[in-house]
Amino acid sequence: MADALNVTFAPATLPKNGVLVILADEKMSLSAHGAALEKKASRLIKHAAAATKFTGKRGSALNLMMPRGLRLEQLIVFGAGKIHDMTMTDWVNLGGKCASKLNEYGVAQASVLLEASTADIASDQAAAFALGARLACYRFESFKTKTRGKENARSLKKLVVMVDDPLEAKKFGGSFSAVAEGVELARELINLPPNILGPIEFADECAKLSKLGVKVTVLNEKDMSKLGMGALLGVGQGSAATRGSRLAIMEWNGGTKGKKPIGFVGKGVVFDTGGISIKPGASMEDMKGDMGGAACVTGLMHTLAKRKAKANVIGIVGLVENMPDGNAQRPGDIVTSMSGQTIEIVNTDAEGRLVLADALWYCQSRYKPELMIDLATLTGAVMVALGQDYAGLFSNNEQLTQRLVASGKATGEKVWPMPLGDEYDKIINSKFADMVNSGGRYGGAITAAQFLQRFVNKVPWAHLDIAGVAFGTKASDISKTWNAGFGVRLLNDFVAEHYEH
Ligand code: BES
Ligand code: MN
Ligand code: ZN
Question: Which member of 43, 281, 344, 490 has the greatest number of CB atoms within 10 A?
């Protein structure tokens, strides 16, 4: 993985060299009043601000080279806007904005003064700022061998966050860096090309979590065949000779012994050609990201283990490649899922739901979870419905819905409730089997969710259709590459808020 931004916490002082960043709020009061800076530089800052119309607006900056009276190379006054109204996610985003400004200036190393005395910056806010800075510095460049261009370049390597209580900030910083690592892992898995990351290689990445105390089990095709997972195995059939399917199970037992776990299940189609119902060529390369759900589950398990979450959590990822081949599954085939229900394949491109059918059934029958949440880049239809800003949320449980919506608001990884119902369910009945795997164009995201629900018994369950948010996303304050690692922060918040007390 590309080297992450090195963030350290240090006591608040006025550095004697290098690049210093201080914050200014919308009243132009500075985060550095207590330090000697005020006396030495306030006139300079006032004049420069007036000359450049800098008013402390969030995200704007005043860049002073070799400021007179200070022994710094560069003093950057960074606008925070209404600093007292900021939520924790605003602090994350501010850190991202600030790091991007430093990248724009080509700065390699900087100290940022987040002193509490006047601006009232708490240690957890400083740690949130550090998280955002780190996430904004993630790039995916390991396959570039030529000099990188200037656009979107990352110069920043090291950031010292100066606070009143570095020890306390470090404590919060521990869980924030666990989140950063989980998000980075998810991003990296999604960005990796499909020739490099097949089902077996993905399962190897899951196995690495055992270093953090996660119990990892990987089922191969023979194991899954014995369990009767005909739905999942049918999808990977075209690649069986070379890139066999896997099911990786990650268990983190950080909660009360014997307490029922919560289960996260991810769609891990390492590449989706559509199979025999092959996709058109345009943008097919994007389908390397069709394992975005699995990447999120893996990143989340990393985060939870790294920060030693006080919860029992199961992460399951169904890893397959969907390829045309002489041995590939055909439209018209009827497969038998682990649940015993039969499925008529009418479109081999509706493969994600087949993978999840067996993965969900395995999760619920084997682990008897308190609840299950699956994530999948499941349908183009959800992108038509919601665009690229919200994931579609389908659930059989009102409380679960409300909690996920709340975590979405808190983290900025937003989810929007969508309907389920019998009128949609009957669309997927089949002439020849228990159900078909595609209900056609109308309500495509909903009929896909109905399909999944046929593999969920009484347990509270939510399905997140992340096709619109998992990749090909717009850049944000904290995400500058092809994907943001959607879902890790959302579900980490969900676990922390409701399952660790
Ligand atoms: N992986 C795709 C869905 C997708 C499309 C995700 C675009 C991200 C961006 C999924 O496997 C798929 O092909 N779905 C079909 C279902 C249809 C055949 C019923 C779709 O959405 O067209
Ligand atoms: Mn498909
Ligand atoms: Zn797919």
Answer: 490
